[in-house]
Design a protein that fits this description.
This protein is α/β, with parallel strands linked by helices and 582 residues long. The protein contains 18 helices and 29 strands. Strands 1, 2, 3, 4, 5, 14, 15, 16 and 17 form a 9-stranded mixed beta sheet that branches. Strands 18, 19, 20, 21, 22, 23, 24, 25 and 29 form a 9-stranded mixed beta sheet that branches.
Length: 582
Amino acid sequence: MQEHLYRWRNKQLREHVAIIDGKISPTIVLKNATFLNVYIKKWQTANIWIYEDRIVFVGEDMPKKMTNTELVDCSGEYLVPGYVEPHSHPYQLYNPHSLAEYALKKGTTTLVNDNLMLLLLLEKKKAFSFIDSLQDIPASLFWWARFDSQSALREEEEFLDNEEVLDWLNHEAVIQGGELTNWPEILKEDDLSLYWMQETKRLRKSVEGHFPGASIRTLSKMKLLGADGDHESISAKELYLRLQLGYYAAIRHSSIRPDLRNILKELTAYDVKVWDYMMFTTDGATPTFYEEEGMIERCIEIAIEEGVPVEEAYAIGSINAAKYFNLEHRLGSIAPGRTAHINFLSSKENPIPTSVMAKGKWIVRNGETASDYMKPVDWPAYDFNPLKLDWEPDADDLHISMPFGMEMMSDVLLKPYAVKTESNKNLLSRSNNEAYVLLMDKEGKWLTSTYIKGFTDSLGGLASSYSNTGDVILLGKKKSDIQLAFQRMKELGGGIVLAHKGEIIFELPLRLQGVMANLKMEDVIEKERELKKLLQEFGYTFGDPVYTLLFLSSTHLPYIRITPSGIIDVMKKEVLFPSIMR
């Protein structure tokens, strides 16, 4: 029997104690196990008793009763706690279930997930039923409660009202508030978000910041208001400042910000002696990054390579995050009472597991992956259905009249530029890297349009229901190809579609509300690789088009964004040109 949602029942607890008294047999005994005790940062040898999904004993003794107990001799292996991903965005084409399935095989047995897409896509009751259902899988999945949409929605107050946020915060699977992408407003006059922060603290849950480039004064102010952690350090100096001020600080190794190795190199100048307040995160990396670079096991590997003491590197990837979330009584260590998340290693210095156990189940055993460890999801039961669109863009929608557009500075940073192109053209010139771009309401009620420079120099059309707001992105140089891509995306029930010279040349179905794929991670990886290759052939010169599409409407990044409310000057918080009703 697995954990009953978020705690063990009294009956289960009595059974756990009865095992030590010799009245009940453990499910598994790991004999002669050399394991890392993350509390004293030492390797010890013991016999580890497991009953169903929980570790019940760690010591020299063997159980008095071992009827039908699986006995595993761990001689020659090194055991460490299952790794913890403290900051996951489980909707980067994949979905929470497929990400967890993939993560388990690599030894990341706990993920703390962003709830943004659940807020956008589902009614609260369905969302709660969905996250409760995920307790039946071997991974431990937790969530955080957003305080803002990370964009400029037309009806923001309906998207996140007080009752909605408080209900999320009080859910047992929700273990933190934030991340605080709206921190500038909180510092000025957003008393409602400040109230939600205080409610989070009252519930003894963590408040996660989002403070890129913040000064010591800003970090101090946000600490006064209740922030506990931040994952936005891009240098050792920024990391060390956060540690000095009492923050838990996650270091990123992600597709957009692979900062970990450089930060650890720079950190040697600070003569760090204590590592207890650091964590690792991949911060919602794209599928191909996970295949090429791995997950938390790769972060630990990089840390060891850069001279972090081995025992500390594993602690950063496990118990530190558990402590940050006040879950150390349940996760992050190999000790009595903890969930049986255990990675088996060939050597202390190699964090890539040869075997993985999660909630007392073998996920990987001696390099072989179990075939039946994930319970499938009945997606329609939770209203994860194909996207239904009953509208199409017409000629008037594609008539763009805007004095300035958005020029790409990187994968995710956009600046304004003066537009000289005539908007009535069906086909934009190949002599520049300029394209039409529209954000259209998924219900077809409004649109925001302008030009984008730097995404492509030749692609006819792109249609994407994958966006930060769940609305539709249309982009390209030829209006007829844009319409063709949209028509195919509509037929698929959502997805990313490329059209060129009157033909569909790529499609990735995203049949879970148009945002996530109901596919294995391995299949999504192949499709993303194909997408990147095609877009690069059509003039995309940056590294991560998936994040470009996601963040086109994200107002936590400078300098200009296309949003449901219109074209936004992010720094001034001004709507420069409002969206248009259709």
